[in-house]
């Protein structure tokens, strides 16, 4: 049995101009160690478990960004569904050695994501723990088209959340709330809701420049959000959204020292002190 349900996020990697600088930044911030991976990649480990990869950009026109991959057991069929649903295939399925097969695509709003069909590598060996991936969401202006796309391609079942329950909103502080702008995705065959959600969709409002493209924001779990944000700045990064509380903990949106955007999330502490 595969380690990841079909369509679940199973991997993240960052494309960076300077790989060694990236290793220093994330090694200091998350305590990651690195080993040489396939091709230009450096595999990242947390506590000896595989959590992500960093890569040196092969083309300077590529964005400096974190990318997320969704699991599939038939990447050719997934690519066909993407086209049928109005998406764009950027990279046709290509074998990554014995590790697996990958492809890259964009949804109708332009947000880029990856597909991963596992070979020897299933994906994360650790997640939802400090120093590892814990959540991803697409930010888009084309809510209706994008919702229909992910439901058709991945079989996601959506749950709309009230405005005050959103993990992260693309609204400026004090901006007027409109319709619920956040939707959680649960895999096909599960009861939709926060307990089964594997990702989500947020709306980019008119409060942001029209030039801001659609994008995926991936989150990493941390023990202390405030400390992680401060540490990122000391390492040469920037804070895009200062730490704030949400129903699922305390989060911040950060940029590394090369401009790649990501979020950190400190899980809430329950009444008995457990996270």
Automatic annotation (TrEMBL):
What Pfam families does the database record attribute to this sequence? Answer: Glyoxalase (PF00903)
| VOC domain ranges (all copies) | 8-118, 132-267
Highest taxon of the lineage: Bacteria
UniProt cross-references to CDD domains, sorted A to Z: SgaA_N_like
Q: Which InterPro entries match?
A: Anthracycline_SecMetBiosynth, Glyas_Bleomycin-R_OHBP_Dase, Glyas_Fos-R_dOase_dom, VOC_core
| PANTHER family in UniProt | CONSERVED PROTEIN, GLYOXALASE-RELATED
Identification of the protein by name: VOC domain-containing protein
Question: Which organism encodes this protein?
Answer: Streptomyces atratus
């Amino acid at each position: 049995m595969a380690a990841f349900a079909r369509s679940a996020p199973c991997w993240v990697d960052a494309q960076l101009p300077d790989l060694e600088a990236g290793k220093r930044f994330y090694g200091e911030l998350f305590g990651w160690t690195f080993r040489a991976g396939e091709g230009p990649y450096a595999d990242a480990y947390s506590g000896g478990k595989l959590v992500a990869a960093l890569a040196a950009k092969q083309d300077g026109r590529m964005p400096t960004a974190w990318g997320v991959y969704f699991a599939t057991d038939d990447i050719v069929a997934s690519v066909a569904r993407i086209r049928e649903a109005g998406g764009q295939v950027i990279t046709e399925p290509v074998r990554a050695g014995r590790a697996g097969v990958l492809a890259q695509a964009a949804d109708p709003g332009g947000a880029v994501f990856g597909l991963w069909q596992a070979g020897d590598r299933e994906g994360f060996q650790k997640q939802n723990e400090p120093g590892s991936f814990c959540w991803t969401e697409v930010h888009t202006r084309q809510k209706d088209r994008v919702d229909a796309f992910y439901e058709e391609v991945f079989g996601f079942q959506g749950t709309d959340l009230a405005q005050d329950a959103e993990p992260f909103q693309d609204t400026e502080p004090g901006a007027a709330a409109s319709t619920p702008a956040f939707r959680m995705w649960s895999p096909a065959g599960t009861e939709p809701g926060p307990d089964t959600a594997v990702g989500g969709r947020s709306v980019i409002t008119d409060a942001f420049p029209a030039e801001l493209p659609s994008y995926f924001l991936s989150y990493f779990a941390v023990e202390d959000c405030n400390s992680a944000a401060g540490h990122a700045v000391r390492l040469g990064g920037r804070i895009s959204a200062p730490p704030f509380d949400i129903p699922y903990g305390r989060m911040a949106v950060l940029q590394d020292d090369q401009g790649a955007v990501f979020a950190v999330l400190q899980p809430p502490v329950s009444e008995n002190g457990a996270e």
